[in-house]
């Protein structure tokens, strides 16, 4: 089973598989970028809360190629960190990325993220997930910085 933090990281990385669209009827100040390809996660920041109290705050900086995601035009992705990999599907509308995490091909979790492009090769993904288990509220917030490598 995929652990929650790993799912958040993967989901954040998926955000880069976005093709932003612009309105053909008016000029759009935001350029459209095709982001299908392979992306490097350079940094990931994760905060975990239990009932509103910060439980952990982690910042991970990755070397080039250490944590990547291949974003396919068909909406599938493969995330690789070290020798492990995970899969998911995604859709994108406006600046909202919806990610469906898969475990052995079966959907196990759905998360929504917002995206912010600095340019065609750099994107920041932000999101959070909330789970309530036996009256305890668990919140995970995630920010990932990604650079396109091909």
Brief account:
About 5% of the residues lie in helices and about 60% in strands. It is mainly beta and about 150 residues long.
Share of residues in helices: under 10%
Topology pattern, helix = H, strand = E: HEEEEEEEEE
Mean pLDDT: 81
Strand order in the largest sheet: 1-3-4-5-6-7-8-9
How many strands, what sense, and barrel or not for the largest sheet?
Answer: 8 strands, antiparallel, barrel
Q: What is the total tally of β strands? A: 9
Give the overall silhouette.
globular
| CATH overall fold name | Lipocalin
- The first-level CATH class is given as Mainly Beta
Number of domains: 1
Quickly give the structural class: mainly beta
Strand content: over 45%
CATH architecture assignment: Beta Barrel
How many helices? The count is: 1
For the record, give the distance between the C-alpha atoms at the N and C termini, rounded to a whole number. Answer: 30 Å
Model regions low in confidence, pLDDT < 50 over at least 5 residues: 12-25
Based on CA atoms alone, the radius of gyration comes out at: 15 Å
Report on this structure:
The chain has 150 residues and is mainly beta. It has one domain: Beta Barrel (Lipocalin). The protein contains one helix and nine strands; from the N terminus they run αβββββββββ. An eight-stranded antiparallel beta barrel has the order 1-3-4-5-6-7-8-9. It is globular and about 45 Å long.
